[in-house]
Amino acid sequence: MTKAVGYIRVSTEKQATGGLSLAAQRAQLEAYASLYEIELVGIEEDAGASAKSLQRDGLARALTRLESGEANALLISKLDRLTRSVVDLNTLIQRYFIGTTGLSLLSVNEHIDTRSAGGRMILSVITVIGEWERASASERTSAAMQAKKRRGEYTGGPVPYGFRLGDDGIHLEPELSERDIILEAKKRRLRGWSLRRVGRSLTADGLYTRNGRPWHPGQVARLLEASHGA
């Protein structure tokens, strides 16, 4: 027999008593369970919780009841009660409802019932769309980062040696004191000095790392490697 835990959600406290209220969703789940002879072991809820994140207390409790074996199905009124993100929905599907988990997803309004072949097919389509959206988002992010680099804009992480973040918080500007150190390191390296000797000589001349510490060979190597664009 199917034992389902229900999950209901509204985005704001005001919606809790509106047309898409928690009470209306609860009644819908109870009617569905009764009609299809599903044992409803409980209903978890999130009142005033955004679907932007999966980090919700009510959802966590519902998923825990699946993981513990108390229920073998998750019952919802609509997919957007779980999440409005195709990627997040795909994450839930992959973890709980695809493969050999033995768990089912039941959605009243979309007529999804993964206990059937048709329901599993619909879920597979959603999964494919989710993977496509994830890959597309990654490509868009990568393209945006490359464009920012071409414009000389800061893309996050440590600011490259020889630069500082401009007052606008976006563009990188030359840091002249560090560029002087880069120039000295290049000159000494061109004399055939080892990385260790270059580091010791810079330190001896009072030219320290950005953290005010002596130069080590590995740091000198990274300094010279990163200095090509400086």
What do you see in this structure?
The structure is a single chain. This protein is α/β, with parallel strands linked by helices. It folds into 2 domains: about 5-135, Rossmann fold (3-Layer(aba) Sandwich); about 165-230, no CATH class. It is built from 8 helices and 7 strands, in the order βαβαβααββαββααα. It has a 5-stranded mixed beta sheet, sandwiched between helices. Strands 6-7 form a two-stranded antiparallel sheet. About 25% of the residues are buried. The model has no long low-confidence stretch (mean pLDDT about 85).
User: What count of helical segments does DSSP give?
Assistant: 8
Radius of gyration: 29 Å
Strand order of the largest sheet: 2-1-3-4-5
* Main sheet attributes: strand count, strand direction, barrel closure: 5 strands, mixed
The CATH C-level name of the largest domain is Alpha Beta
CATH topology of the largest domain: Rossmann fold
- The best one-word shape is elongated
Structural class: alpha/beta
Low-confidence stretches: none
- Helix proportion: 40-55%
CATH architecture of the largest domain: 3-Layer(aba) Sandwich
Whole-number count of domains:
2
What is the chains' assembly state? single chain
CATH superfamily of the largest domain: Resolvase, N-terminal catalytic domain
How many beta-strand runs? 7
Percent of sequence in beta strands: 5-15%
